[in-house]
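G.,

No rush on this.
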Amino acid sequence: MSSFATLNDDNSPVRVVLIGAGLMGRKWISVLTASPDVQLVGLVDINLAGAREALREAGLEGVATGTSLTEVAAATSAHAVVNATVPVAHHATNVEALLAGLPVLCEKPLAPTVSQGLSLAATAEVSGQLLMISQSRRYYRNLAHLRQQLPLLGDIGIVTTEFFKAPHFGGFREEMDHVLLVDMAIHAFDVARYLLDQEPTSVYCEEYNPSWSWYAGDAATTALFEFSGGARYMFTGSWCSPGLETSWNGNWRISGARGTASWDGEGPALLELPSQLQPADTAGVPGDRQDAEEIAGSLAGFVSALRTGVTPASEVHSNVLSLCMVEAAVLSAEKKERIDIEHVLASAYENALNEETMPAVKEALHAWNSISGLLPNPAGKTSLTAATGSGRH
C-alpha cells in the first residue's frame, strides 16, 4: 500500500505549478513544457513581472501567474508542484504546498539544515503527500549502468571523486561560506549513496581556499566518509581550478575485491577485471523513461511515483541523509575532527522538535521516538519504517 497519495488518472498529463522564475526556474520551464507527462498550468514568484517575462521568453501563453502558491494552485486545479525557489525558501514553500494537498518535486537541497529537512519529512507524513528531491545527477544512463555492473567488482572498499571546475558565478555564491560543500558537493555525496547502496556513518573533512581563489569562502575541500558496509568514500574538489577541468559530475574511481571501475562523469564507464578492459554497454538500462536524464529524469521519476505509488529513491526521508553528509562535513571542517553522522542526526532531531511550531507536525516528529530508524542497521541498509512508523517500501 502506498504511503502517499497517488493520481487517479494514469493517462492525462499531470497539471503542475512551478514556483520560482529565476535561472533554475527557467530551466524547469523548458523541461516541463517539453515533457508529454505534465502540463505547466501556473508559475508563482514574488517578482510577478519576472515570472511573466520568463513565460514570454519561453513563448508560453495561458499559464496562470501569481505571488501565492495556494491561490494559483487552486485556480488552475493543479495536481503537483515543482519547487525551484532558493534554498532558504524551501521549507516554507514545501510546507505550504504539502498542506494544500499537493505533492512536491523540490530542487536540491531539501532545506538549508537537517533539522528543517526532518521537519519536512514529518510534514509530508502529516499531509499524506509525496515530497521528492530533484537529485538530478543521479539521472544518467551511463551512471545507472555503472551501478548495475558494480557486483562484478566484488566487495567495494574504496570510492573516490575528483571534482575540479573554475566557474565565475558572481553574486551570492562568491560570497557564501562553505561554497563548494553547501552548493555543489551534495550531488556527489548523493551519488556515492546511490552507487554503494549503503549509508554514511562518519566523516573527516578539511576546507581551504587557494591563494588565487575569487571566492570569499573556502572553495576547495577534501572529505573522507565511512559507510555502513565498511567502504570509504573520498571527495576532493575545487571550484577555483582552471585547466584540465572535470565534468560537472566529477571523475569517479571504484575499487573492489575483483577489479576497478572508472567513470569520467559523462561517457560510458570502464571496468577492468583481471586481464580484461571493457566499456560499459549502455543498452537496455532500466528506468521509467530511458531517454530522461538530469532534471528531466527527476521529473519522470516524480510522475512515475505519483502514478504507481512506488517510493522514489530521493523521497524526503532518504534524502535527509544526503543533506546530513553536507552538514556533517561542514561541522568536521569547522571543528577539525571526525564527526559521527548519528550525532548530527540526533542533534538535528532535537532541534526539529524544539523549533517546530505546527502541532500536527510536532506530534509526527515525537512519534518517531528517535532518529535511529534513519541510520543503517548492521546489514548496511536503512530502515525508514523504524523512524517513521509509515511502513514505506
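When you get to it, here's the other one too:
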Amino acid sequence: MSGQLRVGVLASGGGTNLQALLDHVHGFEARIVAVASDKADAGALERARRADVPTSVFPRTAFPDREARDAAIAEWLDAQGVELVVLAGYMAILTEGFIGRFRDRIVNVHPSLLPSFPGLAAVQQALDHGAKVIGVTVHFVDEGVDTGAIILQRAIDLPPDADAEAALTALRPIEHALLPDAVRLIATGRLQRDPANPRRVLVTD
C-alpha cells in the first residue's frame, strides 16, 4: 500500500490505545485522520485534539436508532478519507451496515485470547473460569461478537491473586504494543488471508 494508510479511530474512553497509535504509527506507516466517539467527554477526543486530529461525537441520543448513527459515523469517516477503522476501546456494537461498508477494513483490540472469552468483561470471564493465562487479541471485525479473523495475539501468565482491574493493568502494555503492530502490518501490506483457510491471517515478509 503506497503512502500513509489513513486511519480512523472509534473510542469511548480515555484513549490510551489511541495514544499508542499516535505515538508509534501516526506520521510513519499510517496517519490518524479522524477520531470519533459516542461520548462527548471521552478522553480520547482530547488526545486527538492535542495531536491536531479531526474529531466528532455521535451520541446515541442524537439519532433515532443505531443504524442511523452508524450511517452518520460512516459518512464522516468517508469524508475524512479513512481507509482503515480501528476500534480502540469503542463500547458500542457496530451495525451490519457499518461493517459491510468497511468490510475487512475494521480492526479491534480485545483483552482475551480469542476465541476464548469474547464480549464484555472478558478478563472477569477468564478469572471466573480459572484461566492460568490471559492475553490480548487484535482481530478483524465481522458481524459476530469478537469472531473476526485473528491478526495478532500475545499471552501472559495470570498474575497471582489478581482481580480484574490488576489483570487489565497487566494487559494494557500488550494492547499498546499489539495494536500499533497490527496497523503497521496492514499499512505495509504484510497481511494476507490463507487461501486454504480464510479465517487464518498470514504475516508476510
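The beta strands are 5-10, 30-37, 55-57, 84-87, 106-110, 133-140, 150-157, 191-194, 197-203. The CA atoms of residues 37 and 57 lie 5 Å apart.

Enjoy the weekend,
O.
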